[in-house]
Amino acid sequence: MTETQTSTTPVDPRHAIDLQSLADWLGRAVGPLAGPLEISKFKGGQSNPTYLLKAGEQSFVLRRKPPGKLLQSAHAVDREYRVMKALAATEVPVARMYALCEDESVIGTMFYVMEYVEGRVLWDPRLVEMTPAERTRHHDELNRVIAALHCVDPAAVGLADFGKTGEYIARQVARWTKQYQASETEKIEAMDKLIAWLPANIPAGDETRIVHGDYRIDNVIFDPVEPRIRAVIDWELCTLGHPLADFANHCMAWRIPPGMFRGLGGLDFASLGIPTEREYVASYCRRTGRDGIDARDWEYYMVYNMFRLAAIAQGVLARAVQGNASSAEALQTGRVARPLAELAWGQVERLKLS
Question: Does 187 share its domain with 322?
Answer without folding.
Answer: yes
